[in-house]
Amino acid sequence: MRTKILKDLLTLSHELGREDRGLAMLGEGNTSARFGGDTFLVKASGTCLGTLKKADVVECRSAKVLPLLEKEGLSDQEIDNALLAARVDAKAKKPSVETVFHAYLLSLPGINFVGHTHATTVNQILCSPRARDLAEHRIAPDEIVCCGVASVFVPYTDPGVKLAQAIRRQTEAFIKKHQRQPRVVLMQNHGIIALGATWQAVLSAMLMAEKVAKIFVGASALGGPVFFSDESIRRIAGRTDELYRQRALNL
Ligand SMILES: [Zn+2]
Fold it and tell me: What residues have their beta carbon closer than 5 A to ion ligand 1?
């Protein structure tokens, strides 16, 4: 089981790191997976998604990372020390600076894989005055199937513990409002996080979000996009044929 989780995480990382997809280059982006009772796997700092290998993945203890969400005013050094102390193997590489938000999102029920990238077209919108529209509205049926009825929107926040705290705040508000888990988190002037039960669900949400962002940008040049009504979104999200498609696609 653990071998399969590691293999799936590497596959997801390689798919997200493919240069032709424009999601992440060089050291951009990171991935993680729930790895059993109290630990998870996360990409090491400074490694590359497209070529990620076993030695670039760090196993961390959730119980050592999650308490950072409650702390205020930690120095960069204190955060570094806490992340290094969270490793199961003291010889493993340093976990990604974004390990804290991975630990939080993997603690949500049913979430086994998380992927984060700086997807080019998604970021065209997230770096524009219309960033919030991309999160709060829907424009295509398959967007609802793969990315959910809406996305969590996080105003720009300094990466690291502060960002993880903002993600938790906005995700909790989203769950309260929509009564369901988010599939996508959009971070202003930064990038996108996709989360799901399987690595395929994470990849599908990421690729669909990037495709929808292209449609959004194109439709904006023509005076759009025209957004779905809440009623249409509810209807598509609840359709049995769409639910069947979700299951068939392992989403
Ligand atoms: Zn990032």
Answer: 191
